[in-house]
């Protein structure tokens, strides 16, 4: 696990330097808040941060449960690809097949696919996140400790799809349904489960309300009571009967579910503390709803490890969601609260990594 700790140390200091080189501009807005301007030095240190995380993810070897299956899958995709139209014949997820084909043209080895996938998953996700916050150290550590980074070592296709959904999140708040549906379609080309993300458009409302919260809770109960219907729908998407196995019927570790519920509890508390009638920033309301939806999915799907993977999409909003809600929970103890949150997720991250044989023994592609 030494590689992970070295990465965390490098990322911590590069983010710290990025924050220190940020230029503060006071009283630029009507409420005299502080705006920030990225300097050349800031962009350089953010580049270092993103580059380190991407490089390690790209050049890992046999790290992640699905690594070998993706490596063999790459060979099958490339060997079955003779023309552009073949991507619709060899797989139901042509976006990934096309990625593999492009990767093989660059360098005909699965490592090229892993490199491109890492770049497309990590780089746009982090840069999109950095546009919404100046807390680079806090948000990057959460990105790692919440599991987004090592998560993309496993379900590559689904994390690519989740990144696409994440990048199109502003279409939800802007209420541009057709553009958001197009985003879902693009994500669908990489992983068919992305079709469920259409529902996120209807989860959001411009104002927080207890009624909407209860609707989400009711929706999670309906999902929890209709596993067979969900499995049938999944089978319909795959054009074949869904056969349940040990993975689809295995319960999720209760600790993992509780960890996903904590941000939602904080989110609801932050809104109630401020008062539902007070004016709350649209973006904050958006992340509150996404954190609630995330908890609802993990609770509802907790009796199926297979279905719980739908949480990959909603869990993407946890880092920025925590950044937004902690601003309003306690101004006096703002930094203390953030330290406690980082420590909490660090402990869970250590627990997950140390208990995963496919992750804790990190190997480099160069040493295979």
Structural category is: mainly alpha
Mean pLDDT: 87
Number of helices: 22
- The poorly predicted ranges are 25-34
In the sheet with the most strands, the strands line up as 1-2
Percent of sequence in beta strands: under 5%
Order of helices and strands: HEEHHHHHHHHHHHHHHHHHHHHH
Number of strands: 2
What is the radius of gyration computed over CA atoms, rounded to a whole number of angstroms?
21 Å
Task: Please provide a written account of the structure.
With about 375 residues, the chain is an all-alpha fold. It has helices at about 1-20, 40-60, 65-80, 85-90, 95-105, 110-130, 135-145, 150, 155-165, 170-175, 175-190, 200-205, 210-225, 225-235, 245-250, 255-275, 280-300, 305-310, 310-315, 320-330, 335-355, 355-360; strands spanning about 25, 35. Strands 1-2 form a two-stranded antiparallel sheet. β1 and β2 (about 35) form a beta hairpin. The relative contact order is 0.11.
Brief write-up:
The chain has 368 residues and is mostly helical. 68% of the residues lie in helices and 2% in strands.
What is this structure's SSE topology?
Elements lengths: L1 H19 L2 E4 L7 E4 L2 H19 L8 H13 L7 H4 L3 H13 L3 H21 L5 H10 L2 H4 L4 H12 L2 H4 L3 H12 L11 H4 L6 H15 L2 H11 L8 H4 L4 H21 L7 H19 L4 H4 L2 H4 L3 H12 L4 H21 L2 H4 L8
Antiparallel strand pairs: 1-2
Give structural attributes.
two-stranded antiparallel ribbon; 68% helix; mainly alpha; 368 residues
